[in-house]
Amino acid sequence: MVTHRNAGTRPRKFGNIKHHTEELMGRLESKVALITGGARGNAEAIALRYAAEGADIVTCDIVPAEELDNTTGKAVRKTGRRALCFETDVSDESQVNDMVETAMAEFGKIDICVHVVGIAGPTQDIQHLTHAEWRNVLAVNVDSAFLVCRAVLPHMIERQTGRIILFSSATGKQPLPHRTPYAASKMGIIGLTRTLAAEVGRHKITVNAICPGYVDTDIVRAAISEIVSKTGRTENEAMQHFTDSNPQGRLVETSEAPEHREIWILCGPGNNGGDGFAAPP
């Protein structure tokens, strides 16, 4: 199946991809990378960078099929690489398994898995949360990481090589009042990363987490709107909650996010020992 980008999302901003990849061009030649959530934001930018560096791309999202192939998929093919796009709910076990098996049939391997999918969840004090709201955030943010890792690992173990990157958040290392499900899920990703790294390191598979600061993505914008509607703060006050946590004093664009280079380093051919990290420290 082929997914597509939601027409209601904001325009993509990738900066000068050629400039960012010149010194690393071709370093992922012959690799196959699975990147979840490829319709927008960080995942879309990573997919295009990896393609520019020589990787064939498998990506997925929950939006209908054709547009993702016409946006992210088309952009990948412009680099000369192949793209395989799926409409997949990564919190659904059978859909994740079907995606990975189809990708294996097409490419014969998955060298790199970057799991980016996540939702912000509700802005609410915990005593006012429903169990359904709690479970939804944990299912999308944590269960999905488990399902994706479990699906790709047998193939990586068979080949005795692999790179897995899971997206946590700066919130994975610090509290975020009124956002308990999100904070718990991102802290859970760090625990999953470190434990899984200890389990599969003997198979020459590395597992690491990325903990981005606040990037100008749909999920952050949605969180700002939720804070405004639930707490009565102004938009500027809600925005300040995020910008004050970034050293730049503003939201970072996807094209300039430093974790994109960290992802390259952690997935690159020279990283055989970096394992169980939650970067930046």
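Above is the first protein from milestone M3; the second protein from the same milestone is given next.
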Amino acid sequence: MTTFASEGHSPSHTALSLRDLRTTWTWLYDGTHAVELRALTPHGPRIGRFTREDAFIRAVRSAQANPAVTGIYATLNPIAADAVWTAPWNTLTRSPRAATDRDIVARRWLLIDIDPVRPPHTNATAVERRAAARVGQRLVEGLRALGWPDPGIATSGNGIHVLYRLDWPNTVATTTQVRRILSLLAQRFNTPDATVDESVYNAARITKVYGTTPRKGPATPDRPWWPARILRIPRHWMTVTADHVTALDLWATPSLNALPSRNGSVSRPRLFATSDGLD
């Protein structure tokens, strides 16, 4: 049984993690299509499209050192080479145009973003982060019981990210399918303390750049700035297939609304809700 902890890094460890930053680049850059980087500030984002790792890392370092930057994000899916872009490449600018869903070549990632329930515009407490990690734990084990492959797992800072590899076209049907997956996961795994974000279904979705430290709200002793870090990488990446998605019908069909056990019989969902997996 897989376990993971949301407390792998203390809030004092807010320096840039070059290892996680380089891993983020390898996850997002396919060798051909640009990755869009966005550094958010109160006066609007600085945006850039990157095809070079050294330029990407340099831009992230500069943004992280800027106290006005509240968060650093990048597009999950590859951007078409012919997508409109008039600003310089491989640098952050005040470009008025960010990538849209139509600019995305294909779907490469399914992001499951688990957020702790907390007051708006605040950082999470350690207790709230653990609540998100517990939901993530149950969700990963539940999907594995349906035959899903192992995901990458990260902390977004305040919450948990679960990332599955995809090799899907960027179509309306795919968007509908991703939206349905997130809805089913939310219905099954949401708790009063942490929920699956159902809004992250669109193709041009951005995600935290792992290795950075978001500064979403004022840092206080009980609600500090938590770093976004990679917690777990599968030994072998495998993509989610149509068969994996079909298996989710077990959760959508009331008569089959239990998890299959390893011997093929039906087991109680409660068996997958007892593993905390936290230090």
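Note on the second protein: The first strand starts at residue 35 and ends at 40.
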